Amino acid sequence: MFRKKETKVTHLYPDCALLTDLYELTMLQSYFDCGMNEPATFELFVRKLPAQRNFLMAAGLELVLDYLCDLRFTDVRLEMLARTGRFSAAFLRSLESLRFTGSVYAMAEGTVFFPDEPILRITAPLREAQLVESRVMNLVHYSTLVASKAARCVLAAPGKQLVDFGLRRAHGAEAGILSARASYLAGFSGTATLQAGLDFHIPMFGTMAHSFVQAHQDEGEAFEHFVRSQPENAHLLIDTYDTEIAAKKVVALSKRLAAEKMTIKGVRIDSGDLSIHAQKVRCILDEGGLDAVTILVSGNLDEWRIEKLVHAQAPIDGFGIGTRMNTSADAPYLDCAYKLTQYAGRPRRKRSEGKATLPGVKQVFRTHGAEGKLAWDALVLEDERHAGVPLLQPVMIDGQRLCDRLTLDVMRQHAQRELLSLPERIAALNPSNEPYRVDISERLVDLARELDSMQSAH
Amino acid sequence: MFRKKETKVTHLYPDCALLTDLYELTMLQSYFDCGMNEPATFELFVRKLPAQRNFLMAAGLELVLDYLCDLRFTDVRLEMLARTGRFSAAFLRSLESLRFTGSVYAMAEGTVFFPDEPILRITAPLREAQLVESRVMNLVHYSTLVASKAARCVLAAPGKQLVDFGLRRAHGAEAGILSARASYLAGFSGTATLQAGLDFHIPMFGTMAHSFVQAHQDEGEAFEHFVRSQPENAHLLIDTYDTEIAAKKVVALSKRLAAEKMTIKGVRIDSGDLSIHAQKVRCILDEGGLDAVTILVSGNLDEWRIEKLVHAQAPIDGFGIGTRMNTSADAPYLDCAYKLTQYAGRPRRKRSEGKATLPGVKQVFRTHGAEGKLAWDALVLEDERHAGVPLLQPVMIDGQRLCDRLTLDVMRQHAQRELLSLPERIAALNPSNEPYRVDISERLVDLARELDSMQSAH
After folding, report:
1. Which chain B residue's Cα is nearest to A88?
2. What is the Cβ-side half-sphere exposure of residue A362, based on CA atoms within 13 angstroms?
3. Cα-based distances in Å from B52 to A275, B66, B428, B432
4. What is the largest CA-CA distance in chain B?
5. How far does B385 lie from chain A, in Å, by closest CA?
6. Domains of chain B, first to last
């Protein structure tokens, strides 16, 4: 288990009561004015899969629970709000004591899910449940986006080492941190992002930059300096000038350093035809007796390029994957929503064209088939009985976590089991002609119809 | 001018010396061990334009300067580093006193630029210049990505109000904050993200969510509650059930509230055919005497959809633009790099296949043509004389800012002038057959050739 103190140094943006859309607070002012604060249920789901995808992987739940536990309006934030002149003094006073007192049901992080299935359900007094919309979505959307993309890389490279290299082109600091976490959850071996490794106890990896080689007059000298400083952990970047010539320098250096008991761990290739270079470099290393030295490749990799390299049986041990993974380049956002499905005991539905939602508090049941593979899911009302495993489980009641924080490694094992349970057509990189089956219960369909006719009668 | 104290509440991730790639610090350990710390120059540039683009807009400089000014290794961070067991005690002690003491030359935020042109150039002792790579890129890449995308939305909708609605699907908290800033810089009117508006003094906008309407039994009652709470600033969302019926409710409500001197500012439509709905709603509002009530539309908008709506002369006053803008959905990353171009007075170059860089410390000169339109740029060595305006200007020397912080509004005016100076083919949304001309000086080409032959001789 994580020790709570240790894990909360910087990984969430601090003091984020105002990290929200303005309209959340103007709506709260209005709810306050007319005394509306009955229990409300909101559900977070994805409307449809991105074009190239067969499944998604839920992530970000623990971050949401931290946010909900910590939520409060500090004096500094309340003064900022007062200065906008948009809120009444009485309303601002009511925010002083606001805490999240609701309940959360959710799919475990690392669970595979499909369109229309709620992955997170919040029930709380209306103002609390509304207020948290923007940040809850912000955390779950991005974590889920990255875990879903990273899971595809994992599926494309069974048994290979995958490392997150993406901080520099991640969309801001938090994206760098959260993508390290989400990709590790999905099965990556670790990250190059130092702060993320420290915050979340994720294994850290690093090689060297081209600038290190360039700063030296001689490439071989650069290699030697680096190995002497990292005698137990040296990974050398060999494509600054000529990849194969550099590989030969690695062999020569290794022989020279053997007497001093220093060993070179691996080499990295970052440009050119990675398959061809890896083959040539492997031969050079093996002939030089360096068959234990690993080859890591990098440079605009994604699941398709990885699959191609694996398929070509290129002698590659690991992949450094950055930008295309943590920006989810083929689908940089999910069509997700956080929608009110019940208020004051009455189911609710919006009917906006192309964006209609299913009403009522829901549950997802999953049925497994032969060899534990996923067979089909059913989306039902919470009080319906159904065969299968209910995926939404209580994780917070009355504002209190129900159990200890799970370690990221435990979640990661769950994610691995989930990926193993995917039917072949769903695990494939290309979109399946036969999407995964998600049934919607008759009672749910009836309820939607009933609400529509009531609304039309208005 | 911003008052420094006020603007630095949360907008940068705090205490971020370790918000970097592990390899920056292992390289520093090695530079420390072999005593390398001569002046190094790194340049940040974009290798090529995304497929659909004709130009980019530089952004993020002020954030970089803040980061460089604040950079230090606190005791907490040094202890974290020590616990990794990867660094020597002597090296860790050297980090205690490390500050950024170098110089920065950069294009002003809001400046239009093109491939291969450095937008930021850092010269500092090697260790400092290397250490800052990851975070400098992280800040400049994302800010530039968003400003460049937002600028296209601005060009597509002359005279319209554009508002950033994107927090919920931004890639983490900092992306939400930074995209509000970058889109305002590029010409947006404001943001819905409360914390960003407060941190950067950006005008804030907000309407209401569907859940607000749904939480009420009656849509008309929801509208009335909201107007009574926001009597000076009510924007009503009218597509929860039936857009035109809701517009009629707005007219009826407005008549009833007129006696109490409350007015409705605007309506928002978020689904369906926005052009057709806007026309019908405009008619209903006008016939009801509400020609001052504005129409804002939202829902998966980007520059192409905006252009189409503007071209159809839909009676739309403003656009709420979120996800596709702040994830830069057609191009969620830029092919940018931060490369060593000179060390210890000697020009450097990497020759990796497909990723070769131009050596030496460089400057960009811009020549304007008729009516102040951009004509062509020249990429030259810093000591070359050339006609035109030098775009890289000193902003920090010896670790000290050269001038007061610019306000975001001043930068925004610069960005507006830049967009007005674009030739028509470059300002167009579709990629031009004739890209903008960027010449590379003969001396620069000669220097690259000379370094190649020296390297080959090794």
Report:
1. B229
2. 34
3. 30, 33, 10, 9
4. 89
5. 28
6. 4-147+335-457 (3.20.140.10), 157-326 (3.20.20.70)
**Summary mean pLDDT of chain B:** 94
Q: Are A340 and A198 in contact (CB under 8 A)?
A: no
> For the residues A89-115, what does the mean pLDDT come to?
98
Query: What pLDDT digit, counting tens, does each position of B123-164 carry?
Result: 999 999 999 999 999 999 999 999 999 999 999 999 999 999
Q: Which amino acid appears at position A188 of this protein?
A: F
**Alpha helices, DSSP H only, in A259-348?**
274-287, 303-311, 323-326
Given phi > 0 = left and psi -120 to 50 = alpha, else beta, which region is B447? Answer: alpha
Decide if pLDDT at A5 tops 50. no
* Interchain proximity A233–B86, CB inside 8 Å: yes
Distance from the Cα of B217 to chain A's closest Cα (Å) equals 9
Looking at residue A8, its pLDDT comes to 47
Name the pairing type of β-strands A400-401 and A112-113.
Answer: unpaired
Give CA torsion, residues B437, B441, B442, B447, to 10 deg: -130
- Chain A residues with CB-CB distance to B75 below 8 A: none
Residue A361 structure tokens: 């508090």
Residues A80 and A78: their CA atoms lie apart, in Å, by 5
Does this model's pTM top 0.90? My answer is yes
Among A211, A233, A241, A268, which would you mutate to test the B interface (most chain B Cβ atoms within 10 Å of its Cβ)? Answer: A211
Residue identified by tokens 């039936």 is: B242
| pLDDT of A3 strictly over 70 | no
* CA gap B426, B430 in Å, rounded: 9
Beta bridge partners of B236: B267
Res B40: pLDDT: 98
Query: Residue B72 corresponds to which amino acid?
Result: R
Closest CA to B319 of B150, B157, B152: B157
Phi/psi zone of residue B172: left (φ > 0), alpha (ψ -120 to 50 degrees), beta? left
Q: Which residues of B141-156 are buried (b: 16+ CB within 10 A; e: fewer)?
A: bbbbbbbbbbbbbbbb
Predicted pLDDT of residue A12: 66
CB nearest B168 (choices: A134, A194, A329): A134
Q: What are A377's strand-pairing partners? A: A366, A438
Is A173 within 8 Å of B174 (Cβ atoms)? yes
